[in-house]
Structure formats: structure tokens, C-alpha cells
Design a protein that fits this description.
InterPro entries: GIY-YIG_endonuc_sf. This is GIY-YIG nuclease family protein. It comes from Sphingobacterium tabacisoli. This protein is α+β, with helices and mostly antiparallel strands. It has one domain: GIY-YIG endonuclease (3-Layer(aba) Sandwich). Helix content is about 45%, strand content about 20%. The protein is built from four helices and three strands; from the N terminus they run ββαβααα. It has a three-stranded antiparallel sheet with strand order 2-1-3, with helices on both faces. It is globular, with a radius of gyration of 13 Å. The two termini are about 20 Å apart.
């Protein structure tokens, strides 16, 4: 069974927050790191994934992604702080992804859909 993951990424200064979809969180994190290091313009340099939700189906993941993209910045910040108050990078080697409270939220959300 494929995992369908919705994530929220941010830049080092937390100035920008953006939601996205992936099936492989580690690869997505590496892509964000790579593109942020090569980006020399005024575009945001997303380099940290600070919130993740897992879904069983693609449709439910896309529905949640649409919700998150319509959230205000304050709503996204509340969601992140509720499960990851220090805005830690959930894909770093020092963070145990499977035991992190921000990842446990996904199972409760899956039951709601």
C-alpha cells in the first residue's frame, strides 16, 4: 500500500510556509534542500518539513491538501505549533520520524475522512 503524505515546508526564517504532496518524504526533503541551495533569486528557500500527515488514499490526501492551501498563515502556524512547537525538521537524521508527535496526527485525521 502506497503512503500519501501531505507536508508543510518552511524556510530558515519561517517567513514562508507551503503545503505539498508526496509519496516519499525523504526524497522530497532532499529535493527541497537541493533547490534551496541552488536558488539565488528572491524565491523562498524551503528547506525544512515541519508538519506531515499520512493518508490511505490519494483522494483524501488531495482533499486535505486543498484545505491546507486555503488555510491562512495563522492557521498553518497553529497546526504546526500544535504538533511540532519548535518547528523541527521532521526529516533530519536526528529526528526519529516514526516516533515524532507530528506524525501521529495523521492516524487521527485519517479516521475523520
Amino acid at each position: 500500500m502506497k503512503k500519501h503524505l501531505i507536508y508543510i515546508a518552511t524556510d530558515p526564517n519561517r517567513a514562508y510556509v507551503e503545503a505539498g504532496y508526496t509519496q516519499d518524504l525523504i526524497t522530497q526533503s532532499a529535493n527541497l534542500q537541493f533547490h534551496s541551495s541552488r536558488n539565488v533569486g528572491k524565491l523562498p528557500k524551503f528547506n525544512r518539513i515541519v508538519h506531515v500527515e499520512e493518508f490511505a488514499s490519494f483522494d483524501s490526501a488531495q482533499k486535505r491538501l486543498m484545505e491546507l492551501t486555503h488555510f491562512t498563515r495563522m492557521q498553518k502556524e497553529r497546526l504546526i505549533r500544535k504538533h511540532n512547537p519548535n518547528w523541527l525538521n521532521l526529516t533530519s537524521s536526528s529526528t526519529a520520524m516514526s516516533s515524532h508527535p507530528a506524525l501521529r496526527v495523521s492516524h487521527a485525521l485519517m479516521a475523520a475522512y
